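Feature request disguised as a bug report, sorry. It would help if multi-protein outputs had a clear separator. Right now it looks like this:
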Amino acid sequence: MVLLLLLGLLTVCAATPRDLSGKMFTFPQETNTAHVRLTTSRQDLRAVTVCFRSLTELQRDHSFFSLATPSAANDFLIYKTAADDGFHMNARNNFKFFGGQNYKLNTWVSICSTWDAAYGVMQLWIDGKPSSRIFVSSGSNINGPIIIVLGQDQDNHGGGFNAKQSFVGMMSDVHMWDYVVSPHEIQNYAHQFVGFTPGNVLNWRELEFQTVGRVLIEDEQWSIT
């Protein structure tokens, strides 16, 4: 009974979409349990754009954004490697390494990734600056049931977490679209202009989510330069 009560205290459900403007998720410790599970009604995706902002001091591998289906644990994954400026980007269980991104520790960084099933090309944007466009996987959509997790890497549908791949830091402004967002809008997002269209799959201003484990919802903290 005590364990059930503790789990209840550590898990917060949002029954209705919540406006998280001015807020951030804080992941304060390395763990194989703490994560945020995001809910969407979209279960067939022929293209994906994901954008978010994050701050961390981690110098090991860690997962930011993990989308899994029963047939593919890494249907769409944004994963930082221990290598300097290195990212593993997955679509439809296939991955490519993206390097040379001028990624900075202990600084708020804007990260966006795009992919479409028709051409199979993936691209990574760091602070509004694009990577090369690289072929990853084409020919099939992402089909549900979809589970989306922040802060952990799903090695199976909804689980298989590894503490050494967990995210420790802060994350904010998570958006997801079912199309490839234009470079102009990605740059507007990166520089916090008002001209970008909020996500139609996930929208930080109308986010339906569940926190599991020690994940805090706090006021945003932005660096003053």
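(second protein starts here, but nothing in the output says so)
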Amino acid sequence: MNIQEYFARISYNESLKDADLQTLTVIFQHHIQAIPFENLSMHCGETIELDLQSTYDKIVRKKRGGWCLESNHLLFWALQELGYDVCILGGNSYNPAERGYTAEINHILLKVVIEGNSYIVDAGFGGAYQAWQPLMLISGKDQSQIPGIFRFTEDNGTWYFEKVKRKHYIPEQSVPFTDTPELGNIRKIYTFTLEPRHINDFQALNTYLQVSPDNILQKKSICSLQTAEGLYALVGWTFTKVKYNYMEDVDLVQVTTLTDEEVEKTLKDKFNIVLENKLVPVNVRGLPPNLVDTI
């Protein structure tokens, strides 16, 4: 494994500076705009191994993406190589259908400490809930970024992460402005504590997500990537392009339904992904609202 090879993968060409916030921000932004959040392996007959060498080979050398366990693990390694004070944390994602957080940890995120200040760095949530900059770990403070306003709140050692949603402008709809008012303007994302974790703590989760028929990742083939203006998302045969702040407090959302052949072409053209094995797109309809459906 080589940090320069990782830099080439994320198109980071700047000279290395101190392990400061500015460098962290630039590397993080290159990472999320080059490495898709995707679960395609489980929909084309591949096993996802949760060890650093396998993750490195898949994402850096084969130019694939990965889900949170892979993308954030790779970023953890890179930041360690660069001398950052970084540790792994575990999160419990919010399930809108159940109106609550998962009982078991099902997400990995990173905490980076710079000059005594703690930042949450999470390159592995994907879609419209992906922050574009490290977030200062401070309770009750609105942190405005291009994707929207993010906020942490802390209660008795548990941290809650949420986002203020914008309205969507969908040109093809007869009523093009949607804001899903029944969900409110605040979208809960996940909770976490500051207990340091090791990647091996997530081995059982990595196995479970690949074999359990009930989890959302089994029911939908997903690939999303942050862009300079917003994001691309491919769920099953549905390709969505989002442009943030198309109008004041409104995101432009363009949705296209693809054929099987167009899925393969879109993966190559929009996500720079060429699969070794044939993808079987999946998008089980009629599921309760979840973070994947609401781009």
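Even a blank line would do. Unrelated, but nice: The radius of gyration is 18 Å.
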